[in-house]
Amino acid sequence: MEKLKRFGVSMNLELLRKFDDFIKKHKYKNRSEAIRDMIREKFVEEEWEKDRNVAGCIVIVYEHDVREIVDKIIDIQHKFSRNIISTQHIHMDKENCMEIVAVKGKVEKIKELYFYLKALKGVKYSAITKATTGKRIE
Ligand code: NI
Questions:
Q1: For ligand 1, a single-atom ion, which residues have Cβ within 5 Å?
Q2: What is the pTM of this model?
């Protein structure tokens, strides 16, 4: 069973009011849960800053009719096969496709893959979600 340790936090009333509004809006059960979540988010940010082993998700939306784009996407993904956990392809409509790529590995590699995909002609939207393997946070 995990050990919990209590500690006191002091802050001015106005900041605490804003924090309580934040807690309400974000559906946290209490201040402790909100603080724990915010700390974990900072740790994940740090993992990404320090080129650690991370996990994440790349999303691209593109027009599949653009010359050779599908082949290029496949070629790039094969080059990064060690970093790709899975790929999901969604046919959005007649022209547009969305691809969701779950990734893991060193930050530098993940970003390189993301930049290759993002820069392709025909890609209309791209985003990366910075997640974690979970190993470094409780
Ligand atoms: Ni498609």
A1: 91, 97
A2: 0.86
Per-residue pLDDT at 130: 96
For residue 41, report the distance from its CA to the centre of ligand 1, in Å.
Answer: 33
First to last CA, the chain: 13
Say how many Å lie between the CA of residue 93 and the centre of ligand 1.
8
- DSSP designation for 65: T
53-131 sits in which CATH class?
Answer: alpha beta
Burial 61-74 (b: 16+ CB within 10 A, else e): bbeeeeeebbebbe
Angstrom distance (rounded) from CA 20 to CA 42? 20
Please, which residues bridge with residue 96 across strands? 63
Q: Show me where the domains of the chain are located.
A: 13-49, 53-131
Would you say 76 and 117 are in contact if contact means Cβ atoms under 8 Å apart? yes
Closest CA to 96 of 117, 74, 69: 69
Query: In 3D, which of 76, 68, 137 has the Cα closest to residue 103?
Result: 76
> What share of the chain in percent tops pLDDT 70?
99
